Amino acid sequence: MGWIRIEELRKPNIRDITLVQGLPGLGLVGKLAVDYIIEELRPERFAILYSNDLMLPDGKAGVLVDIKGLCELPRYEFYSYKGPKGDIVFLTGNTQPVSWAQYEVAEKVLNYLKEEYGLKLVIAVCGTVARGRSGEVYVSANDEELLREVASKYSLKVSSEGAVTGACGIVPGLAKLHGIKGLILMGGVGQIYPDPVATRSVLRVLNALLGLNVSLARMDLIVEDMVKKSMAIERLRRSMATREGGEREERGPPWYYV
Question: Which residue range is the domain that position 173 belongs to?
Answer without folding.
Answer: 4-216
